[in-house]
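Input/output pair, single chain:
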Amino acid sequence: EQAEKAGKARTDAAKRADICAQARSGVRMYSNEYAALYRFNDKGERVALDDAERRRMLAEQQRLEKEYCGN
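Output:
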């Protein structure tokens, strides 16, 4: 049982570290106001993110960074 708990703790820590790294990368990406960012719409067309979308995505990445990176 102890080994199982330790294995779960390691798995949870690895998952948190992965989410943290992705969130930090997202914060850097969405913070760069000079970089053009795109998403794909339902038709598969590339559409540029507007300022409101960029701010929304940045806020979400900052929330994840705070939650998973311990900042």
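The two ends are 32 Å apart (CA to CA). Helices lie at 2-31, 51-69.
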